[in-house]
Amino acid sequence: NFLKVVLVAFISSSIWNLIWMGFGYMLGNNWGTVRLRMTNIMAQYNTAVFIFLGALILFFVLRRLLRARR
Fold it and tell me: What are the DSSP calls for 2-66, one per residue?
């Protein structure tokens, strides 16, 4: 039922928004510290993801080249 799905989605998104607003309120003026730490964490995460994706792409390219030689 479409109306039921819309209602449940609205309730769910409202709960998540309240949680995030609560975190924002609790952090208050400490957002600068959080932003700095998250920037460092995300930089490390992005590096790991790019290395993994590069290795995955290299694997598939090499596999295709080796199969083409046969």
Answer: HHHHHHHHHHHHHHHHHHHHHHHHHHGGGHHHHHHHHHHHHHHHHHHHHHHHHHHHHHHHHHHHH
